């Protein structure tokens, strides 16, 4: 079983994403068409600085470590993974629009957009798939403004405060939800 992976960061060319629908379909299914569509892993603003930004809050793991863990976990469970990070809200919204019909589910760390973005919440329903929300730190132990999420009411589950292991937990739970 092949695992489809695409890594896009804010510092790499965005020409790689979105992948045209026909190419994504080819990448995410085997010759018999029996593999599930990939899981979409999205990371919001400033998460490209994991490992250097506030390690006392977010730990020393990098975004590459997050993606490696997510790829390994998804692959163990028979799913491909498409991973992307951006510091630009409209770009993430465009990715969500283009994901409809091309993914099995979403694992998202919306970062600061968690607390501010109605537009992101509106876009998250467009793919019409289960969503898992992840936060590396325990947002409820932090500033009051971080206690509200526009994403949580849309999510099948929310995983908070487990460091980058939260991504693994989210993928495992997402696959359970997908049944």
UniProtKB/TrEMBL annotation:
Lineage: superkingdom: Bacteria
InterPro entries: DHquinase_II, DHquinase_II_CS, DHquinase_II_sf
Reactions accelerated catalytically: 3-dehydroquinate = 3-dehydroshikimate + H2O
Coiled-coil spans in chain: none
Pathway per the UniProt entry: Metabolic intermediate biosynthesis; chorismate biosynthesis; chorismate from D-erythrose 4-phosphate and phosphoenolpyruvate: step 3/7
Site (Transition state stabilizer): 53
Family: Belongs to the type-II 3-dehydroquinase family.
HAMAP family from the UniProt entry: AroQ (MF_00169)
Name the UniProt record assigns to this protein: 3-dehydroquinate dehydratase
Record lineage: Bacteria, Bacillati, Actinomycetota, Actinomycetes, Mycobacteriales
